[in-house]
Specification:
about 400 residues, VC0802-like, Rossmann fold, 2 domains, 9-stranded mixed β-sheet, about 20% strand, thiamine biosynthesis, EC 2.8.1.4, tRNA_sulfurtransferase_ThiI, Rossmann-like_a/b/a_fold, tRNA-binding
Length: about 400
């Protein structure tokens, strides 16, 4: 069982004078996520590296799976850390490592040594050759292949010598919390959880707003969205979810406005309400799962009309993605099967047979004039009766 993990990152390394802020954020995020894993862990930063040291028994698979969900990590290397006690001691540790890690010795290998500590008495090339020779002596079935090795044995000469041969991919991205906060319009569909995941991957902290329409939408539809938020929270951390009762607003729009304009007008009022909570939460923008042309409300003309009511930026990370690419990400982050459960939300119930695909802002605003008598009161009631839930990872 490995006692330590070397955590690799990429973009953080080019951050210049602010690099330490991103490293510190990543360390804090690792600590936060590992609190849910059985075992004792110590996360430390040392000479441009981040290490997770374990103490006592722990669940290796759960630990790795957890680290693979932490944005900012590009590689997770189970590592052996040893004191520098001379070359012979190093060679013995490497041979012991190979013996434990690879029971079947019929493989090709290459030794890749790097000296972060330049006062080490051997050059990197000398270490490669000498350690490789010791491995061949200990395990004659092995052979060296410097071009296409089956096993790459890494040796990093640091204050503690690092020995590893496996790099498990991480999710990449930037550490959570380094890029501000944004409000996700979350529904029970496939797209919006993926949009939240993708923006969170760039270091953005998420809040979310969900529009519920009882009795036209069931409690199961609401629970479905909460379950989706839990799955996204495995990557993003805790999500503050605002559940807005949108029924009276929808019925009023349905009563007063042309039915072919229902979807666009409802979207505009959803954006207004979501923006209220976004401003309250000091968000820097809103996120939707819209993609050009996917449905009638997502044509360029429709998106422009929807945007017109917003004062803060609206980010649409899926805007140019094909549906199958979105589905692939949903499957990867384990939201797809939940998203396709057959519980309708408010966006799918009050839908016209022939919705307008090229709405005119002038006509939409004219239709909205029919709502002036009650719409402000209905919006305020919806805001005042909103249920706010703190959603943690499942």
């Amino acid at each position: 069982m490995y006692k330590s993990f070397l955590i690799k990152y990429a973009e953080i390394a080019i951050k210049g004078k602010n690099r330490y802020l991103f490293e510190d954020a990543l360390v804090q995020n690792i600590r936060y996520h590992l609190e849910r894993v059985e075992g004792t862990f110590h996360v430390r930063k040392e000479n441009g590296r981040i290490y997770v040291d374990t103490e006592g028994e722990y669940d290796y698979d759960e630990t790795v799976e957890t680290l693979q969900r932490i944005f900012g990590i590009v590689g997770i290397c189970p590592v052996v850390l040893v004191e520098d006690e001379g070359f012979d001691a190093l060679a013995k540790v490497v041979c012991d490592y190979v013996d434990r890690t690879y029971p079947d010795k019929n493989f090709t290998f290459k030794v890749d040594a790097r000296r972060a500590r330049k006062n080490y008495p051997m050059t990197s090339m000398e270490i490669n050759a000498a350690v490789g020779e010791k491995i061949l002596e200990a395990f004659p079935e092995t052979s060296v292949d410097v071009h296409h090795p089956e096993v790459m044995i890494h040796i990093e000469i640091r204050p503690m010598i690092n020995i590893y041969s496996t790099e498990i991919p991480g999710p990449g991205g930037m550490p959570l919390g380094t890029a501000g906060r944004a409000m996700l319009l979350l529904s029970g569909g496939i797209d919006s959880p993926v949009a939240g995941y993708m923006v969170s991957k760039r270091g953005v902290t998420l809040e979310a707003t969900y529009f519920h329409a009882p009795p036209y939408t069931s409690e199961r539809a609401k629970q479905k969205v909460i379950d989706l938020a839990k799955k996204v929270a495995r990557y993003s951390g805790q999500i503050k979810l605002h559940v807005v009762n949108f029924t009276d607003i929808q019925l009023y729009i349905y009563e007063k406005c042309p039915h072919e304009e229902l979807t666009i007008i409802m979207r505009r009022y959803m954006m207004k309400i979501a923006e209220h909570f976004a401003e309250e939460g000091k968000c820097l923008g809103m996120i939707t799962g819209e993609s050009i042309g996917q449905v009638a409300s997502q044509t360029m003309q429709s998106l422009a009309v929807t945007n017109e009511v917003c004062h803060m930026p609206v980010y649409r990370p899926l805007i140019a993605m094909d549906k199958q690419d979105i589905v692939s990400i949903a499957e990867k982050i384990d939201t797809y099967e939940t998203s396709i459960l057959p519980y309708e939300d408010c966006c799918t119930i009050f839908v016209a047979k022939h919705p307008v695909t090229k709405p005119s802002l002038k006509h939409i605003k004219k239709s909205e004039c029919r709502l002036e008598e009650k719409i402000d009161e209905l919006m305020q009631t919806a805001i005042d009766t909103t249920e706010t839930i703190l959603v943690d990872a499942e």
